[in-house]
Amino acid sequence: MDLQLSPDQIFMRDEARRLLAERSGSEQLRRAIGAGGFDAALWSTIGGELAWCAVAVPEEAGGLGLGAPELALLAEECGRRLAPVPFWSSACLAAPLVAALGAGEAGAALLGRIAAGEAAACAWPGIGGADPLCGTIPVARRAGGGWTVSATIAAVLDASSAAFFLVPASADGGLGLFAVERPAAAVEPLEGIDLMRPAARLVLDGAAASRIDSAGFSARDFDDALMTARLAEAAEQVGAAQGALDLTLAYVAERVQFGRTIASFQAVKHRCAALLVEISEARSLVHGAARSLDPLEVAAAGVLATQALFRAAEEAIQLHGGVGNTWEYDPHLYLRRAQATAAVFGSTDEKLAIIADALLGDAA
Amino acid sequence: MDLQLSPDQIFMRDEARRLLAERSGSEQLRRAIGAGGFDAALWSTIGGELAWCAVAVPEEAGGLGLGAPELALLAEECGRRLAPVPFWSSACLAAPLVAALGAGEAGAALLGRIAAGEAAACAWPGIGGADPLCGTIPVARRAGGGWTVSATIAAVLDASSAAFFLVPASADGGLGLFAVERPAAAVEPLEGIDLMRPAARLVLDGAAASRIDSAGFSARDFDDALMTARLAEAAEQVGAAQGALDLTLAYVAERVQFGRTIASFQAVKHRCAALLVEISEARSLVHGAARSLDPLEVAAAGVLATQALFRAAEEAIQLHGGVGNTWEYDPHLYLRRAQATAAVFGSTDEKLAIIADALLGDAA
Amino acid sequence: MSIEAFRAEVAGWMAANLTGRFAPLFDRGHAGDGDALPELRKDWERKLAEGGWTCIGWPREHGGRGLPVAEQVVFQEEYARAGGPGRLGHIGEGLLGPTLIAFGDDDQKRRFLPAIREGREFWAQGYSEPDAGSDLASIRTRARRDPESGDWLVTGQKVWTSLAHLSDWIFVLARGEEGSIGPKGLIFLMMRLDQPGVEIRPIRQIGGGSEFNATFFDGARVKAGDIVGVPGDGWRIAMALLGFERGLSTLGQQMGFARELDLIIEIATENGAAARPAIRARIARAWAGLRAMRHMAMRMLADHPEPQVQLESLGYKYQWSNWHRDLGRLGMDVLGFSGAAASADPRVEKLRRLFFFTRADTVYGGTNEIQLNIIAERGLGMPREPRGPSGKGA
Amino acid sequence: MSIEAFRAEVAGWMAANLTGRFAPLFDRGHAGDGDALPELRKDWERKLAEGGWTCIGWPREHGGRGLPVAEQVVFQEEYARAGGPGRLGHIGEGLLGPTLIAFGDDDQKRRFLPAIREGREFWAQGYSEPDAGSDLASIRTRARRDPESGDWLVTGQKVWTSLAHLSDWIFVLARGEEGSIGPKGLIFLMMRLDQPGVEIRPIRQIGGGSEFNATFFDGARVKAGDIVGVPGDGWRIAMALLGFERGLSTLGQQMGFARELDLIIEIATENGAAARPAIRARIARAWAGLRAMRHMAMRMLADHPEPQVQLESLGYKYQWSNWHRDLGRLGMDVLGFSGAAASADPRVEKLRRLFFFTRADTVYGGTNEIQLNIIAERGLGMPREPRGPSGKGA
């Protein structure tokens, strides 16, 4: 009933924290920016060697069979250091999607590849909206014994590093889930505001695809299958908020103005303290929602985490003063993540509307 | 083009401020609470001797023929001291209503009475809503050469001190404006949260009434005739916000904790400073809107003033610490005014919707 | 017994007993209503004691039931869910009792603990003073030793002595050493309230009620054996006692919050406020905050919370009190103008009380400002706020 | 000429001249885009000068047109309404010029003012230093007198020297007296930028642009006659100059804000965000804040603002900068996810620039924190924040 972390969970989190403190610091982030927002070596450690993406993959598919709580802990640590790797896209988004909608050998094989550290990206039209399938849904057609998929997706996160893409598409009058291998797709990188999670335009022109699901699924099924991804996004935001606060605390402890450290000014202290409370509130909700995966709690976690991250990033820039507005200091990297994630899976008002509809009945 | 106050305006405001500092202090407010939220002596000075209610009454009706800017200045000073007199109800609400909708001798006579210091109260069903005429509209019937009005109005502000009531009522299939003398009405005082502006339930049971308008008016006309009252309410809120800040500044300058005045704590300083900015923002809008009487600016002034007053009152209680939560200190009187006025003429979201509809088109 | 069986037992007992002559106590006596029906509530405390529902977390050797945290949580939840009245025994059970168990001598434990557990003696607390609100170290109430009897004679004034007029005893933090300053030289005393040197005056709160008092001591007598620890120990004991204040009552409190939010939802649905997008968003946000508090409590109540959680728990008081204050405003905004005038509907009156009372939440028990100082200094290691030049002030 | 005729004249001139080769300047060079098209904008400054539109508020005896406040306001408004580009001449016209008019000697006025007015020489400002951001009194750049020439040799570093790489001159606040501390011993110097002892490095901002520089002085030379006032006067002159910074450009700035808000409304209407109640409320709130700023400016720009208004004007920088920062976020939230990825639509890019650039508004020209200190201390008479033990720091 309580939310105490198990010794295994604490160990996993602390190891992740240690690794990323070492491998995803400011300098490494700068190098990753030059490489399109991706650190291949770090990914090989995380995805391959340490098999973080196997965490929530079922044991029968070669995973550890753990769940959302563990993913959330790792996502939080990745967020804290803005780790430029497709952990969220692969482990928190793609893997649960395949686990929920995939079937048979095709599904198990993909899960095995993700567990082994191959990066996956998900392509659907409405990533910016509360409804992931809004917009023009890709079209799958039978071709020979297999399928082809055609679509243009305006923005796919972590597309450039992906080994394959998961594409929900209309097929046989229903919805199906398809996998398209990277070579079959045209990937055009976009200049996004989040420098650590690059997006790309994806063009599939009759690309060969394999079908993962067995008998189709509803839009509702698809939405439900994203619950872990929504939760992990909030976890990552909590981590990033903490990371921005860490930066701020370190800076104000050193920076001297008027003969005192900035940290000694009470207004600064109070704002940092209030931020800690806000982050801790969001973190509590993320931990609780990771156990329940209740859609309302997940939406609520998204609301609180989005707000905590934005404030933390805003305050990081403000309390860094002049240098907070320079490219070479890190606060803006967190602001970029804050704004880029503010509308994934719907804006704050759309998330609140989900809760309000449940508590108060539909507005209309 | 600029918004400089004229020497006459400054003189009027400063005299009002001086008078109310002397006559509407904490002790006098306590006595007024005992007298149902009304200070008869102060009212006799303000309404009678100094003729504040004549300010915006046209000269031909015995007034000074000034306008909303002057009313706003006086309302602001009344708000600052929570003066327990029906200035707003009589001078800012009733008088402009009669001036806009009244006609002929009947209207002029009423204006003359208000200008001479008789208190007036306005009774309509929807005072809490954005639409003042929502709810059951009173019914007027012809009786002999005159009219009678029947209605039960749940809450009429400043009813107890009123010499007569203005009642919009359905008459001859349209809307008419009627005056009912106090003796013809049953007034049942309510325990309201604003101790300085008492409300009462008003029962009119075939009460003799005189018709003020000549040929009826639309709901829209009625709404337009309330613009000065809306503006003056915002002015009063700005004044009350300033009054709450005044209290707070005086207290924190005296109160010592940890061997220092509370005023020396930077977090306290910053909050007081931010409040000043917020109040000044609302005040600027009130002064500007008083000149334009543009409905959007008046709505905006209401939004900013409501927020400034609530924050100022909330901070007054908080920064007074323990004693801020006691009956005998004044901050709660401001909080009461803040909450009581938050929804007169519509809530903040309804006021914002007026603006949004104009800028963006109707929502639906 | 399984936790669910225990839950059923509590619920069953409450249903069977909060009825008949105790029925009027349903949902009464909580914050803002704390002085309601005092005699009946004292009887209720004795009823609880008979049922074995007082001091369930105290160790067995001190008369408690030694129940683990999970069961205490369940008790708090079910008590609140059943509409159990505000606990007049709270200060004795939750504050003074644990203090005596930790610091009292055997004689004191024998004399005081059973009376608390059985609902026979009620306690008030005497910490704050008019010039020492947030700044406990600067208190001025003096305790001088009477050389003949060895008793202590106390002179001074305490404020916010909650429910002192309904209590038998008060514990008092006083300056036991002439000329001492700050946290040094303080003494922790236990004093009977029904004696000539004590005068209790109600403090009227902004909502109109009087749950708190100012208590004046003019040579009030404390028996030589009724001090906890030794003279000079006062600060250490007082700080430990404040630590006991946090904790399990949290979940019962949250259950109360949930009932308040439900009431607001009910009224919003009735009066049409639920159709307004801004109100909908605020209600949803309040729900999110409440769930966050719930999970925060679940993290804090783990048997061995990790350091991260201990750090975060410094912020919990700030979190709940500001949430609650916002809820109080939300309730009024849902009522709209109809909340500004009086109402025959008791639900409206409840929301009006909530609005006023929650203003105190961010002040009592450590103001927002003190909480943020503590979080920044103890939690984040930021520099301490300097004291002013004098320990006493202007 | 009536004010309306004057307005028509400005609008007419802008329409006739911001065209042809100057057409690319439409709406360019504003905050976040300050280094755009520098050569063409210098030509534009000369064009303005030919039309008599530079320094219109300077007194006639110093080459200005001595126009009253109302006309200056109109000029700012119409300039902005017509999409006039960011003024490269701003620092010379608005800061250095008024400073020289107030404190310069006749020779300086003769040498510098005409070049500013005619758009021949452009100025940068050198106040902030890496270790003296908000705390100007602790600057460390040193100026030593060369005993032979009487010139001053300057060594040190300035940051946020806006557009120094496009300027001819920089004014520098430096420590002219060895060993002096705080505001004492400072000197106000005017230095040519194209000399060996000066190195200018761009500072890359968070949005990617580089409107500011760090400027390094290594024995850079200032002619004996190019100091304003006398050594030791620096602080007084610098403070006066900061005072000139506020004022008329306000209304032009507001016109720019209004255009930004219009753009947001346009996009919200196109992309459906305008249907979301939360977005609607935020847009309405932004409009209210903008109107409040407009009326605030109208109060401040009165010929003799009363004390109340003078007090309130202390808060204006805090007011506009926080409003603008919120507007930057609103723009992105209206774009939604489509703002997170790149776009071919220049309006989207404009809102993205706005988002990043407005983060600096609450920092440059006095941070939020400094503004609140000033309002509290000078405006509300609250106690001054104590300096730390050392004037220089750890």
Description:
By secondary structure, chain A is an alpha+beta fold. Chain A folds into three domains: 7-118, Acyl-CoA dehydrogenase/oxidase, N-terminal domain (Butyryl-Coa Dehydrogenase, subunit A, domain 1); 121-217, Butyryl-CoA Dehydrogenase, subunit A, domain 2, CATH 2.40.110.10; 226-363, Butyryl-CoA Dehydrogenase, subunit A, domain 3 (Up-down Bundle). In chain A, 51% of the residues lie in helices and 16% in strands. Chain A has twelve helices and nine strands. In chain A, strands 1, 2, 3, 4, 5, 6 and 7 form a seven-stranded mixed sheet that branches. In chain A, strands 8-9 form a two-stranded antiparallel ribbon. In chain A, strand 8 and strand 9 form a beta hairpin. In chain A, helix 10 (295-319) packs antiparallel against helix 11 (331-341) and helix 10 (295-319) packs antiparallel against helix 12. Chain A starts with 6 loop residues before the first helix and ends with a helix. Chain C has 394 residues and is of the alpha+beta class. Chain C folds into three domains: 3-88, Butyryl-Coa Dehydrogenase, subunit A, domain 1 (Orthogonal Bundle); 123-233, Butyryl-CoA Dehydrogenase, subunit A, domain 2 (Beta Barrel), CATH 2.40.110.10; 246-379, Butyryl-CoA Dehydrogenase, subunit A, domain 3 (Up-down Bundle). Chain C has helices at residues 3-17, 38-50, 69-81, 90-103, 106-117, 234-245, 249-271, 277-300, 307-313, 316-335, 337-340, 346-361, 368-379; strands at 123-126, 142-145, 152-159, 169-175, 186-192, 198-203, 212-222, 227-228. Chain C has a four-stranded mixed sheet. Chain C has a four-stranded antiparallel sheet with strand order 2-3-7-6, with no helix packed on it. The mean pLDDT of chain C is 91. The interface between A and C is large, with 45 and 50 residues.
